[in-house]
Amino acid sequence: MRVKIDTKEVFHVITIEEKELSANMAAMLMQIIDEKQSKELKNLVLNFKNVQTIDPSFADLLERIRHAQYEQQKSFVACELSSNLKEQLNIDNEFDRFHVTPTESEAWDIVQMEEIERELGLDI
């Protein structure tokens, strides 16, 4: 699986470079995330801008990633999912479960806002 990883001060951006994500790629993506987070635990932005088709099992993967991040007091945001991908993942009505933003810049904003909330001791 090809990905591009960009490390910022408080978060990692993982951009998936594949056009199609099959079910078996979920394990590969989780391994990449675990490896990166084990070296330096940061907030996580997952960018889907290159992805055109996705297996529905990725919704479960996104939930596992979100759960793991928030257990460790870190944020998780998925961004640049096309409406087709959101439909394939059936997450149109689950925005309260996932932070999904139209752009990477907006994902950064959510991460930074949640960092401020954690610093202030607010429950997120």
Which helices and strands appear, and what pairs or packs with what?
Elements: E1 3-7, E2 11-16, E3 20-21, H1 23-39, E4 43-47, E5 53-54, H2 58-71, E6 76-79, H3 83-89, E7 100-101, H4 104-119
Parallel strand pairs: 2-4, 3-5, 4-6, 6-7
Antiparallel strand pairs: 1-2
Descriptive report:
With 124 residues, the chain is of the alpha/beta class. The protein has one domain (3-119): 2-Layer Sandwich (Transcription Regulator spoIIAA), CATH 3.30.750.24. It contains four helices and seven strands. Strands 1-2-4-6-7 form a five-stranded mixed beta sheet. Strand 1 (3-7) and strand 2 form a beta hairpin. The longest helix is centred in the N-terminal third of the chain and has 17 residues, at 23-39. The mean pLDDT is 88.
Quick take:
This protein is an alpha/beta fold and 124 residues long. Helix content is 44%, strand content 21%. It has a 5-stranded mixed sheet with strand order 1-2-4-6-7.
**How many structural domains are formed by the residues?**
1
Strand content: 15-25%
Total strands: 7
CATH class: Alpha Beta
Structural class: alpha/beta
Low-confidence stretches: none
**CATH architecture label:** 2-Layer Sandwich
Helix/strand order, N-terminal first? EEEHEEHEHEH
Largest sheet: 5 strands, mixed
- Measure the end-to-end span: 32 Å
Instruction: Based on Cα principal axes, name the global outline.
Output: globular
Mean pLDDT figure: 88
* Helix run count: 4
For the biggest β-sheet, the strand order reads 1-2-4-6-7
CATH superfamily membership: STAS domain
Radius of gyration: 14 Å
**CATH domain topology:** Transcription Regulator spoIIAA
Portion in helices = 40-55%
